[in-house]
Amino acid sequence: MNQAIRSYLAEFLGTFALVFMGTAVATLQGMYHHGNIGLVEISFAFGFTLMVLVWVLGPVSGCHLNPAVTIPMALSGRFPWSRVVGYAIAQLIGATVASGVLLLLMKGVPGYTLAEQHLGANGNAKDMSVWSLFGFELVMSSLFLLTIFSTTRRDAIRGFEAWAIGGFLTVAHLIGAQLGDASLNPARSFGPAVFEGGPALEVLWVFIVGPLVGGIIGWQLFAAIHAEE
Question: Which CATH superfamily is domain 3-225 in?
């Protein structure tokens, strides 16, 4: 198997794992009414899963698992444009399969219904203005990509990338899990929304455009404060 195919497979598996683990915890804590502690559970599920995956898959594909990482990486010259489409397809399919598998398994859990417990999709649970929802995604995604670019630059201290990247995603979810926000990842939002439909699909554009634009801003912030680019 050549390197390109291995990297696509790694992106599929990594995005599957991230979305499955994170949204499974979100679905279960909502179903069993864990309250405020459930917000911490969700935050750690996403952040620590990503942290582990950076160590596991980073050497194979760079562990993007997110179109809002892949596109700024290509724009910066760190990643070949020839693989962008393949990465994005692998990420979107991985997220969608993860949500499909989670739905299939949750149907065997007593008391679960998709209409009531949903599937961990991002949304607008607090009925914020759509621009406030978009703004949270934009700001957090910008800082997320600034973190990723900074900790993976050529002169960065090696070995701490996973801690920084997973740690930032954890903290972002401590904000966003309270709001239905903190996707920072179009693929993560796409998978559950496909199955939930309704309101999740109506605001899906926020969780696609916000992270993509924020990711580009984050790259530009990195370029402005670091000498590498």
Answer: Glycerol uptake facilitator protein. (1.20.1080.10)
